[in-house]
Design brief:
With about 375 residues, this protein is mostly helical. Helices cover about 60% and strands about 5% of the residues. It contains 13 helices and four strands. The chain has a four-stranded mixed beta sheet with strand order 1-2-4-3. Helix 7 packs across helix 10 and helix 8 crosses helix 9. The longest helix is centred in the first third of the chain and has 33 residues. It is globular, with a radius of gyration of 20 Å. About 0% of the residues have low confidence.
Length: about 375
C-alpha cells in the first residue's frame, strides 16, 4: 500500500499541480487582456512538458525502484521506452494541432470539431496498433468464441488490456501474463466478461456516449477560446479549456459510470453460472496487479469516491446477488482517457494508474 500511496502522493498530485499552475498562468494572461506573444505560450507549454517528464520519471521508475516493484534493469531501459512513447505522443499531438488550425482556417470552428469527432473513430479503430508502436509488446492472437483476442505481453504487471476497434469491429486485448499465471478458470472468467460486454452491445453504447461527451467538450472549448480561429493562440486556448473541462468530468461523472458498468458485468458473469468463488479470486488478483501490487483488500482505502474508478472488491461481491441489469455502459474510464487524444488533453498522462507507464497510456487500467 505504501508503494501506491507514494505514486499518488509524490508523483500524481505533483504532476496535476504542475499542469494546474501552467493553466492558471495562461488564464491570468487572458483575464488581464495581455496579448501574449507566441513565444510566451510556447514557453508555458514547454515548461509543463519538461516538468511533467520529471514526474513521469518519479512515477514510472524512481518510486517503483524504491519499493522493490521495478522489473526494469536500469533507468536507461525506462528512458528508452519512455522516449519511444513520448516521440509518438508528441508527433500525434503536433500533427493533430496543425490539422486543427488548418481546418479551422478553412472550415471554421465546426470543421475542427468534426475533425476531432472523426479522430475518435480512427483512434479506437487503430488503438492496439498505436499501443504496439509506443511500447515493445510481444503479441500473439487467436480466434476465441468467434472473436479475435490479442494476448499482449509486457513486464508492466499493471497492464490490463481492454477492447480495441470501433463498435461492430472490436477485438479483445488480454494480458499474456494473466493467461499464463492465473488459474485457467480465473483467466477465462475475466476474458468472458469482455466477451459479454461486446456481445450485449455494452461497450458500443459506452463508446457512443464518450464520443458525444468528448465532442461536446471540444466544441465548447473551440467556442470559448478567445483568440482568432485557426491561430496558434486559439489552439493553445482550446487545449487549455478542454483539459480543464475533461478534468472536471473526471471527478465524479466518468468514474461513477465506470463503477456502475463493472458491477453490471460482474452480475452478468454470475448469471452465466460462473462460480462466485472463481469470480472473487479472478477480481482479487487482477485488482492486486492493477493497484501496483498492493493488498487488494485495501485497494480503495483513502481514495475519494469522486476519483475512485473501480468498486472495492467487497462492493463487487455484494453486488453479485442483485437483480441482473444489462443496461449500462462498459469500460468507460479507459476509453475516456484514450479518446482525449482527439482534443489534445494534457491531463491524460497524469492519472495515477498510468503516470510514467507507457504500456498503460493507450489501455488505462480501469476494470
Amino acid at each position: 500500500m505504501k508503494y501506491r500511496r507514494g505514486r499518488i502522493n509524490w508523483a500524481t498530485i505533483s504532476s496535476i499541480w504542475t499542469l494546474l499552475i501552467c493553466l492558471l498562468v495562461q488564464a491570468f494572461l487572458y483575464i488581464k487582456g495581455w496579448d501574449a506573444p507566441t513565444t510566451i505560450l510556447w514557453g508555458i507549454l514547454g515548461i509543463f512538458l519538461g516538468v511533467q517528464m520529471i514526474w513521469d520519471y518519479m512515477g514510472g521508475y524512481v518510486i517503483p525502484e524504491k519499493y522493490g516493484q521495478n522489473l526494469l534493469k536500469n533507468p536507461n531501459q525506462w528512458l528508452g521506452r519512455y522516449g519511444r512513447a513520448m516521440g509518438i505522443y508528441l508527433l500525434y499531438y503536433g500533427l493533430n494541432g496543425y490539422m486543427f488550425m488548418l481546418i479551422g482556417q478553412t472550415l471554421g470552428i465546426w470543421g475542427s470539431v468534426s475533425w476531432a469527432a472523426v479522430q475518435m473513430l480512427l483512434l479506437m479503430g487503430f488503438r492496439q496498433y498505436i499501443a504496439r508502436g509506443m511500447h515493445p509488446f510481444k503479441v500473439r492472437y487467436e480466434n476465441n468464441r468467434g472473436r479475435l483476442v490479442f494476448y499482449m505481453d509486457t513486464d508492466d504487471r499493471g497492464f490490463t488490456g481492454g477492447i480495441s476497434g470501433i463498435p461492430g469491429q472490436e477485438s479483445i486485448i488480454f494480458p499474456e501474463y494473466w493467461s499464463k499465471k492465473f488459474k485457467s478458470e480465473e483467466a477465462d472468467a475475466l476474458l468472458s466478461m469482455r466477451h459479454g460486454a461486446l456481445n450485449i452491445g455494452g461497450h458500443g453504447k459506452g463508446f457512443f456516449l464518450l464520443w458525444v461527451i468528448h465532442s461536446a467538450l471540444i466544441a465548447l472549448s473551440t467556442w470559448l477560446s478567445p483568440e482568432p480561429v485557426g491561430t496558434f493562440e486559439w489552439l493553445i486556448g482550446i487545449i487549455s479549456l478542454y483539459t480543464i473541462l475533461m478534468a472536471i468530468a473526471s471527478l465524479g461523472l466518468i468514474p461513477m459510470l465506470n463503477r456502475k458498468g463493472i458491477l453490471q458485468m460482474d452480475r452478468w458473469l454470475y448469471y452465466k453460472k460462473v462460480d462466485a468463488g472463481i469470480i472473487r479470486k479472478a477480481i482479487e488478483e487482477s485488482r492486486r496487479l492493477q493497484n501496483d501490487l498492493s493488498s487488494s483488500s485495501q485497494e480503495s482505502k483513502g481514495i475519494p469516491k469522486l476519483i475512485q474508478v473501480t468498486p472495492t472488491l467487497q462492493n463487487r461481491m455484494d453486488a453479485l446477488s442483485v437483480q441482473k441489469d444489462l443496461k449500462g455502459n462498459y469500460y468507460i474510464f479507459p476509453d475516456w482517457v484514450f479518446l482525449s487524444w482527439a482534443g489534445m488533453s494534457l491531463i491524460n498522462r497524469s492519472f495515477q494508474g498510468s503516470l510514467g507507464m507507457p504500456a498503460r497510456w493507450i489501455f488505462y487500467p480501469g476494470e
